[in-house]
Write a structure and sequence with these properties.
The chain is mainly alpha-helical. It is built from nine helices and five strands; from the N terminus they run H-H-H-H-H-H-E-E-E-E-H-H-H-E. It folds into two domains: 105 residues, DNA polymerase, domain 1; 112 residues, Outer Surface Protein A, domain 3 (Alpha-Beta Complex). The longest helix is centred in the first third of the chain and has 22 residues.
């Protein structure tokens, strides 16, 4: 709607919001004392910046103060959120990094991947488990069809994001991707496992519909690897499946196959 077509009070709200978001480019509404506007400027920005710092603590720690605030202010000024909920700010920040910010001089090459990994930890910690999956908790994970927890999320990154911190800044990404499995256990604690290509492939196969038995999935992996002794692959996979069950990544086996 053109500015001239808006009722005066709505136009004033737009001017107020535009100034709060980016005071360097948008003047404050006429007739409001700057001291009062300053309170609103600080209150709104500080709330958003605080959510970002708490949601992305590693990224926040890696960046010097001026760079961090430049990033947070650019997000605050330029991104138009689709959710009014404060808990959705980290998701909106990811959208900004992926779709709007683009590559900028001085940004970490792993900026988006690290932010995504930190968001996953937050998202899993508050995710609701709506799926009431029935599973035979002590079922045979080789001959039965393993049931995966909906709170176990496989991730694939170019950088080892789970290791990044002040004491470790990775070199440019190489051809070897990092496979992670982030999950929330029965104690509601979020944990992660670093996967290798074989265990990552096993998890992917178990996500298929219809799901194979553990043995079928491992035989397929052995064929793909052209392994001379498939039983070795199956034995190793059985150990992985058992560990996943202990961690709550695998809930058991499908009951209709018992």
């Amino acid at each position: 709607m053109p500015d001239t077509a808006r009722p005066a009070f709505i136009q004033r709200q737009y001017e107020f919001a535009a100034h709060i978001r980016n005071p360097d480019r948008n003047p404050a509404p006429a007739g409001i004392e700057d001291r009062r506007m300053g309170i609103y400027r600080e209150l709104f920005y500080n709330n958003v910046e605080s959510f970002l710092a708490n949601g992305f603590p590693v990224l926040h720690e890696l960046m010097d103060d001026s760079d961090w605030h430049a990033l947070a202010r650019d997000f605050f000024a330029s991104h138009h959120s689709h959710s009014p909920l404060f808990m959705e700010i980290p998701r909106e920040f990811l959208n900004y990094l992926e779709q709007e910010r683009g590559e900028r001089a001085g940004d970490f090459p792993f900026l988006y991947e690290l932010a995504h990994y930190e968001w996953v930890e937050l998202a899993l910690s508050i995710a609701e488990n709506d799926d009431d999956l029935a599973a035979a908790t002590q079922g045979d994970l080789l001959d039965g069809q393993p049931v995966l927890s909906p709170l176990a999320w496989p991730l694939n990154y170019r950088y080892p994001v789970h290791r990044i911190g002040p004491d470790f800044i990775p070199a440019p990404a190489d051809e070897q991707n990092t496979y992670l499995l982030v999950y929330r256990g029965s104690d509601d604690e979020v944990g992660f496992i670093e996967l290798n290509p074989v265990s990552a492939r096993l998890f992917a196969l178990l996500q298929e519909t219809p799901a194979p038995s553990g043995r079928q999935a491992l035989r397929q992996i052995a064929e793909e690897l052209q392994h001379p002794d498939p039983d070795v692959v199956i034995a190793g996979g059985a150990h992985i499946l058992d560990e996943w069950r202990q961690r709550g990544i695998v809930l058991g086996t499908q009951i209709n196959n018992q």
